[in-house]
Structures are given as structure tokens and as C-alpha cells.
Amino acid sequence: MPRKVEDIALDDRPSLDELVRRLDAGGGFSAKGVAEGVDLLVRMLSDPQMTVFLSFPADLVATGTRGVLATLVRGGNVDAVVTTCGTLDHDLARAFRPYFHGSFDLDDRELHRRHLHRLGNVVIPERNYGTIVERKMRKILGDLWASGVRSISTQALSRAIGAEIPATARSSILRAAYDRDVPVFVPGITDGAVGSQLRLFWQDHRALGLDLFSDEQALSDLVFGARRAGAIVIGGGISKHHTIWWNQFRDGLDAALYITTAVEWDGSLSGARPREAVSWGKLKPSARHATVEGDATVLLPLMVGAALERMAK
User: In CATH, what number is assigned to the domain containing residue 174?
Assistant: First the structure.
């Protein structure tokens, strides 16, 4: 017997978990996908034998969603983070300097004249991004060099940055990862401000090398040591691909939650749905999976909040 569509009531001010349950009962379009995604998220985070990978692009770290990502890491809900270089940039910068509300419709030529960067509808003063990253990275890299470091993986670099961020910065992803000993991997490390600082430092310290193979070995150890493996994949790009690519070597993920705004029909990896990953062996045919289509800055706080509330019960 098919389920009846029920109207969503809000007059009793439901909690996040209750609201998500009502979205499921409402059965309408993306709402049902949100509810299914929360169910899968709870299953993954509640499974003590599941190694959970968290994958996301850097733009989210320039927004308040950074706090949600840090909550997942600090709460011990994920075992590894795979992301892009800009995550290091924004997380480090925002630990010391603020970003500001803006608009998609601002005059970008005027912003450029005033040394202001626009990231969507977020405005970032140049001195609060490039300048602070440059100053902090010079110290971090100088200290590493002075201690005898001549080769460094992105996992070790992320940890060194996390150690430099004050413990009071509770919304910092890198500080949370440092405190919880969660590895952060950045396969595209040169594509950002931190990567540029690495190259500039290398110009005067040619003996310094990037040890990317140590990152790959650490990922290999995580993948092959996993009893079960799951992935929370936000957006797409290199961080998504690196996560699912490595899991094909253990015959695929056992669970995957995708949150994306990308379309499937252009053939991009960012828009590829979990069922395509099955054909590559990156997701097991028997794996539980869900794709929630929409903006992660809206969906992730709702879904993570509901999942953590349900788990607390």
C-alpha cells in the first residue's frame, strides 16, 4: 500500500530531526531526498566499524558552513578529510581575520580597486586573506625548516597549520583535525594561497620537497584497513574524485552521501551520481547511497544538525 502524502506542520516549532521526519512524510521532490540523506548520514556516523571520509571544496570554508564541517571533525564523526588547497587558505585566514557579508551583484571593478575579493556573496579584504596567509605560512614553513624538515606531505602540512591556529578557534577545521588527530589530505596542494607560499619558500630552500606519496600511502592504509567505508561527498572536483578513486581499490565504498548542485548530463565528475561510481567499482553494487540536490550551505547545517540530534537520542 503506497504511503499517503502528509502536509508539513510547523505550528508546534519542531526540532531539526522532527522537521526532517516531516519532510519525509511530506514526500515532496527534494524534501524526500533530504530525509533519505539524513537517514543514511545517521547510519554512517553511528557505525563504529565504518571509516568515514569527508570530502568538500574550499568555497564552503569561506562561509558559516565551516562551523558545521568543524563540528563533524571535532565530534569524532569522520576519520579523514579530503579537500582542496583553498580550505587551508580560508581556514587559516578566518582563524585570525574576519570575512564579511556581501552580494552577488556588487561592482567587481570597484571591489578590485578597493582591494576587496568577492567569493559569491562573501567579501574578503585582501589583507584578511593573502596578507595573513603569507605572514602565517612564512612562520610555519620557517619553523618546519629550522626543525630539520626537508620533505613534507599535505597531511603533515595541514597538521602543522592546525597546530598554529589557537585552540580557542572552535570553528577551525584544521585545529579540530589537529586536536582529534584526523588526517587532512589535499591532493591539489599547489592550487591556492598556501600552495603559492610553499613555492615561494622553495625558491630560497630548494632542498624542501613535497612528499605526496606519503599522503597516498596513508590513504591506502585507511582504505585497506577499513572494515566498512563510507563517504560524505559535498560538491565535486578533485576532492570528490580522490575520495572515491582510492576506495575502488577495496572494491568500492559501502555507503555514500552526495550533496551537489551539479547536473549529471554534462558528463562532469562533479555531477556524476553514485550509480555511475558503481560502474567504476568506486561504490559497491550493494552500497547504500543517496544524492541530495541543492546548496550545501543550506542543506548541510539542516542535515548534520538533524543527524546529530537523532544520534543523541
Answer: 3.40.910.10
